Design the sequence.
């Protein structure tokens, strides 16, 4: 039994890690995992695909580099068109998708 970096180290049979070393390894591993997940989400935005919505026709057009890929039915707000917060209106203008849910 000895103390290293403020941790009590107990070497078991065959030099197995003590509980304190396992917890330390787990803490370092989880920090690395969180860092990897954060860096993986730093991808460049997709500028090749666009979605155009016609509120009058209730249709969505998917474009890939300007080429029409498909047209799909959509449903916009029954409260009408508008942009103010809390209005429940369908917002107008050019918008960007923040995240997939």
Sequence:
């Amino acid at each position: 039994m000895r103390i290293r970096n403020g941790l009590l180290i107990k070497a078991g049979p065959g030099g197995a890690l003590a509980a304190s070393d396992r917890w330390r390894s787990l803490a370092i591993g989880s920090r690395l995992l969180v860092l990897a997940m954060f860096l993986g989400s730093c991808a460049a935005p997709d500028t090749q695909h666009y979605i155009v919505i016609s509120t009058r026709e209730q249709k969505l057009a998917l474009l890939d580099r300007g080429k029409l890929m498909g047209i799909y039915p959509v449903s916009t707000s029954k409260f009408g068109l508008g942009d103010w917060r809390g209005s429940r209106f369908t917002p107008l203008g050019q918008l960007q998708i923040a995240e997939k849910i």
Notes: The chain has two domains: 2-40, 45-95. The first strand starts at residue 2 and ends at 4. DSSP finds one helix and five strands in the chain. The first helix runs from residue 19 to 40.
